[in-house]
Amino acid sequence: MTKARKNRKYSTPPKSSSGAARKSDVKTDATIDLTRLLDIVASFPRQTVGVVGDFVLDEFVSGEISRVSREAPVLILRHRRTESYPGGAANAAFNLADLGASVLPVGVVGDDDAGRQLLDHFRRKRINVSGILRGRDWVTPTKTRYLAGWTHTTEQQVLRVDREPQVKLSATTESAIGSKARPIVQRASAVLVSDYGFGAASPALIKKLNAKLLTLDSRYRLLEFRDAGITAATPNEPEVEAAYHARVGTDIRKLEDLGQRALRDLNLQALVVTRGKDGMALFERSRVPRNIPIYGSDAPVDVTGAGDTVIAVFTLALASGATYLEAAHLANYAGGIVVMKRRTATVSSAELTAALRQDATAATQQR
Where would you tag: which of 41, 114, 194, 229 has the fewest CB atoms within 10 A of its CB? Predict the structure, then answer.
């Protein structure tokens, strides 16, 4: 066992990008057994996780600024390259795969170029695609981000164009998704639900799964998953605010009230509210809410898909036997790593392990 692994506790709050320790308005619980977290990460490859949700293609079109158009006050971009990445539930699945888990995705893509690209991404990652349907009348949701920059400058997003299905999933397709999902529930140690509002992870469908460990990330209809057997959910703060038509702002008591209400209304074992630069708030039954300061910098490079990473790590940690607090800490580490990457990105087990070891070493040196 290395000197770093011998250290078992880390209780120094992460620092902001300015180097100063951040102050928390609520009780901060940053003490965690880093050796235990390392052991949990080491067990990731032994887990199988099902992913039921909306598969999205994230497209990035890069261009060099040429000039301002004479036709309208807009930039003319000289095309450099176009890249595509798995987004939505597909991004959650890819995070799980890069963490070493076996992944069983269930959902639907269109019989279109975006759908073919997504399936190609899955196959290159050697992820089983037998649970992914091809819908002839379905449009694969695609988010195209246009990035502009000069030759030696950082590109900035100037426009996003979303292509979305104009019709709801048919009852036949939704039934077929359920048929694909049920046997996977029996094989998987956990099921992750990634609901982006396109219909592949409807509350009605999820209620029929009866999974032993079911986690939820729902973009627009969190409270519609009442009585769906959800174990834990990971909404961000704006999603909780939208669910209850309320505003948190700097009012920590309001956050605690909404978090406890969501915990009760959804009949959850745990709720993790992600709060951007303010970290995470963890709510559990019969426990005082706990705040986890962010890991790493409070000046992210790109937050695209960070929520997918958070729920992927949180779910995989729970499947590996972690407590809700341990799982939240691991998700917090992963979120801090992925927001420092550009484009829709994932976190690997090697990166997560390195971050944990680095903090263990730093804590040892502070003694």
Answer: 229
For residue 183, give the nearest of 90, 92, 50 by alpha carbon. 50
**Is 276 buried (19+), middle (13-18) or exposed (0-12) by CB count in 10 A?**
middle
Query: What's the average model confidence in pLDDT over 150-168?
Result: 92
- Integer Cα distance of 294 and 333 in angstroms: 8
Helices (H), the chain: 3-6, 34-42, 89-98, 113-124, 171-187, 203-207, 237-244, 252-265, 306-319, 324-338, 349-366
**pLDDT tens digits, 178-225:** 999 999 999 999 999 999 999 999 999 999 999 999 999 999 999 999
Residue 71: inside a domain, yes or no? no
Residue 149 lies in a domain: no
| Residue whose entry in the numeric block shows the structure tokens 């999933």 | 169
Cα dihedral sign, 177-308-94-290: negative
CA distance to 12, 22, 25, 27, 276, per residue, from 293 (Å): 10, 8, 11, 11, 10
**26 domain residue, yes or no:** yes
Secondary structure (H, E, C), 2-65:
CHHHHCCCECCCCECCCCCECCCCCCECCCECHHHHHHHHHCHHHCEEEEEECEEEEEEEEEEE
The residue among 326 and 286 whose pLDDT is bigger is 326
CATH classification of the domain holding 287: 3.40.1190.20
pLDDT over threshold 60, residue 117:
yes
pLDDT confidence of residue 16: 39
The CA distance from 211 to 200, in Å, is 17
Average pLDDT over residues 277-300: 94
Structural domain boundaries enclosing 192 = 3-57+87-138+167-366
CA separation (Å) from 101 to 55, 298, 313, 317, 329? 19, 29, 10, 11, 19
Domain count, the chain: 1
For residue range 4-62, list pLDDT tens digits in order. 333 333 333 334 333 333 333 444 555 789 999 999 999 999 999 999 999 999 999 99
- Residue 298 is predicted with a pLDDT of 86
Which residues are designated catalytic? 308
Residue written as token pair 């939704």: 174
